Amino acid sequence: MARILGIDIDRGAVRGTVIKTTFRSTEIERYVQIPLTEPAGSPGALPELHDALQNLLRAIGKPPDTIVSSLDGAQASLRVVELPAAASKRVAEVLPFELESMLPFEISDAVIDHQLIGTKDGQLQLMAAAALKDRVRAHLALFAGTQIDPREVAVGAAALEGLRGLCPELAQKPVVLLELCEREANVCVLERGHATFARTLSVGWDGDPKHEAELWQALHRTVAAYRASGGPTLETLYLCGIGPLTDLAPWLAREVSLPVEVLVLPQVTNPATTTPDDLPVFARATALAGRITLAGKRINLRTGEFASTRAQTELAAHLNVVAICCVAVLVSMMLAFKAHQTLLLDEQAALQKRLGETTEAVFGKTETDPHAVEAMIASPQSDNPLPRFDAYDALAAISDAVPQEVTHEVRHLRIDFADEKKEGQIELQGALASIDQRDQIVTKLEAHGCFADIERGRTSPGRSNDQINYQLEAKIRCPGEATPAKKKKKTGSDDE
User: Fold this and answer.
1) Domains in the chain and their CATH numbers?
2) How far is residue 366 from each of residues 214, 346, 370, measured CA to CA in Å?
3) Is the Cα torsion angle 296, 300, 304, 310 positive or negative in sign?
4) How far apart are CA 403 and CA 389, in angstroms?
5) Per-residue pLDDT tens over the stretch 277-300
6) If we measure between CA atoms, which residue out of 450, 383, 452 comes closest to residue 420?
7) What is the pLDDT of residues 380-418, one digit of tens each?
8) What value, to the nearest 5°, has the Cα angle with vertex 94 and ends 139 and 222?
């Protein structure tokens, strides 16, 4: 479980929203508002601001795990930038060069960050933020001397994207969020919950009719600029911030030709805490807290020289836990390797046993060394019961002995092997054109080496005048084959 505090420093108040996240849910724990008598940012207002921040921390009880604040949109530049998709892994290097011609200040004097919008026509669409380092430094100085150290600093209207995880209606269709502040107004377009357009208007809601007219004109121009960019049709405008939002909604709907609704923020789930009546004014603080629950990279000006040191401190404080986890992972890997090795050894033993049984059945000798078995197969020994030369080999040898140009007719062929399959006998009767052709066949069989004692049988005229019939008999015994032992003849008496 984690507790996240979003802090919104307005001119007239400091507001905070605490959300509690668990593995399955996110809920609002508390809304807190501390009024300011001196407008924030005015000379001499810093001590009162520090007191308000400390009172805010006391009001929420247990210190939060993460704190998020935001830089006013008027103090930063937000724009949509397109880069080639091939630069997706080098955006941080390429983006400053892309922004250099668009900014009114030097890139070296600015803090730059981005978040992904999506990919379109082979181009990466990014929302890029740039702010002068002095302004980021001044924003962080507001918290100096207090127990508040924001881990993230969001920027202007883009920060409102954090509401999508807490307000389901913002994630369903293309909508626009309008936050009214005293000196500015923030416009953020969400397409399926993702910010695709964000702009801060330099005029806010302060009750002055002149400023009110300027605000609606600026809003008209902003909505028209978004529509001209080719974005999908907006379906609803949600109002939040200060001012008589309920009264403004119907009038504003006619002005912008869109349904307008006042944004409904979640109620407090803690029964010991009441939900304020003016919930819409907590929209920014709630959005800042909700940003932490969103997946993916977010714009954060606490980067580079302004990177939060709290994360490093927390890591150092948990080094023991990290070390124990590393040891546990290492031990688990060793146990898994040992188990795998044992499994392989068992499998090897089973295969060796099977190999020994097979060699015993085939060769009459148990052998478990695979290299030795390969040698036994390649060079069979004399006691090998497998024949080196079988009937199929004999038939192939006879076929090879007949020259290709000779017409040979087989009348009778018989191949016999003895029980030991070490030697055999062949009988061949056929028809040829001449005795010379028969002698050629006999010569090739003698050269083969496995045919011995070849006897040329009688010859006779064939069926036609150009043929003769011939007979051959031969023994089959290849070199190295053991000759079956001859049985001894029994004598007439045992005394002989």
Assistant:
1) 2-317 (3.30.420.380), 324-364+368-378 (no CATH), 391-476 (3.30.1360.100)
2) 100, 20, 11
3) negative
4) 22
5) 889 999 999 999 999 988 889 999
6) 383
7) 655 555 556 788 888 888 888 888 888 888 889 998 876
8) 60
